[in-house]
Specification:
With about 250 residues, this protein is mostly beta strands. The protein is about 15% helix and about 50% strand. It is built from four helices and 13 strands. Strands 1, 2, 3, 4, 5, 6, 7, 8, 9, 10, 11, 12 and 13 form a 13-stranded mixed β-sheet that branches. Strand 9 and strand 10 form a beta hairpin. It is globular.
């Protein structure tokens, strides 16, 4: 799922269109089809985007809390966090997330120089986003194994890269050591841009239905980190039985 945000610069705007940017402090009103917007709310940066294909309601709650409900159809994404992001932030979150169909609960952000969109996916619906990306190995952090990977995307005349960490043990409450993921990506040849744009926890839906009510905060305890790049991981994987039989013949 591709969403270009208005913070990414006029060059991107001219190709793919932009979201309306409200004044700082804008608070969205709960109603069917909440229009896309972004800004500051109660000390946190928020962003909300929808293509209008579904009845979707986004609400800014106190501090780091937000809620979304959506019906089937369309593409939508929204949440809260920080702008700019950080290479070393530890993010904690808690709440409820339920979805039928293709959906993510994830940390989402962008960097410049080069332009990189990234996801650290904590929960997903019917579609596993690790299917189809270029595998870059795994990182074990925050109590689970994450599959790392890369996709190359285009929108109009703009080309960009997506980085992923996809958690194998899904959860709706936890702590994400973003720095651990970023270091693991770099060790696997996935280098983020020099400067961060926003960095937020989001719920995203694509022709699905669901709801989420999440609260995000900064800080939290993290555990040990182990990175296994793809080449090394392949050497550690057991040889399939069929291949063993072929070798024996």
């Amino acid at each position: 799922m591709v969403v270009f945000n208005s913070l990414l610069g006029a060059a991107v705007f001219s190709v793919v269109g932009v979201l309306a940017v409200p004044s700082v402090g804008t608070n969205l009103i709960t109603r069917a089809g909440t229009p896309g917007s972004e800004g500051m709310h109660d000390g946190f940066f928020y962003s909300w985007w929808t293509d209008g294909g579904a009845t979707a309601t986004y609400t800014n709650e106190p501090e780091g809390q937000f809620s979304i409900t959506w019906g089937s159809g369309g593409n939508l994404l929204g949440g809260k966090g920080w702008n700019p992001g950080s290479h070393t932030r530890v993010m904690s979150y808690t709440g409820t997330y339920q979805a039928t169909g293709n959906s993510y609960l994830a940390v989402w952000g962008w960097t410049r120089d080069p332009l990189i969109e990234y996801y650290i996916i904590e929960h997903f619906g019917s579609y596993n986003p690790s299917i189809g990306f270029m595998s870059k190995g795994t990182v074990t952090t925050d109590g689970s194994v994450y599959d790392m990977g890369v996709r190359f995307r285009s929108s109009g005349l703009s080309l960009f890269t997506q980085f992923y960490s996809v958690r194998r043990d899904k959860r709706t409450t936890g702590t994400v050591d973003l720095g651990a993921h970023f270091k693991a990506w770099e060790a696997s040849g996935m280098r983020l841009g020099a400067s961060h744009q926003f960095q937020i926890l989001v719920c995203e839906g694509y022709f699905s239905s669901g709801s989420c009510n999440m609260t995000v905060s900064e800080g939290g305890s993290t555990g040990p980190v182990t990175t296994t790049p793809e080449a090394e991981r392949a050497s550690l994987d057991p040889i399939p039985a069929a291949d063993l039989e072929a070798l024996a013949r």
